[in-house]
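input
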Amino acid sequence: MNQEQTNTTRKTRNAVLIAMFGAVSMVLMLLEFPIPIAPPFMKIDLSDLPAILGTFMIGPGAGAGIAALKIVLKLVFKGTDTAFVGELSNFVCALMYILPSYFFYHRKKTKKRAAISLMLGTLSVSILAVFVNYFIMFPLYSKLYGMPLKAIIAMGTAVNSHINGLFSMMLIIVFPFNILKYGIVSVITFIAYKRLKRALIH
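output
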């Protein structure tokens, strides 16, 4: 097989993997569940698992493509109940997770660096999500959905009485929420990545 045929085969395989991972990601996005530390509109899902796996196997473009395909499929099959803000937030958080993870890991692909890269990605998205949600997503959701920010904050206060404003909600709920969500995704990725790569990419 010459180089051109090899490249064509690789591109075809990657396109199939992105489509497959995107479909799996959409299903995982629908299997969301609430947790006691967050108000009902914030639910855990593991839909970024295929995105980080695709990123490690193929590259960050593939991870972003999987995350985008997931959102498109979700909107087609279910629509939105967050005025598209939840979907936008999900996509942005996926990027804030997969990009730091990839750029640390790809320089030297060892088991130790994989673990560190996933921890770095988890910490990065958890910190950045505080500011993205504070300045953009929550105010945008309030405006587009027609729900006053005070009402959103009140939902947080009902979960934790220490929440007395939007920023305290970011620190007390949004930050640990993302630590938990992406921590779970990272643990599964660390355990499954090498085996899955051997099965899918020869």
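quick obs: The radius of gyration is 18 Å.
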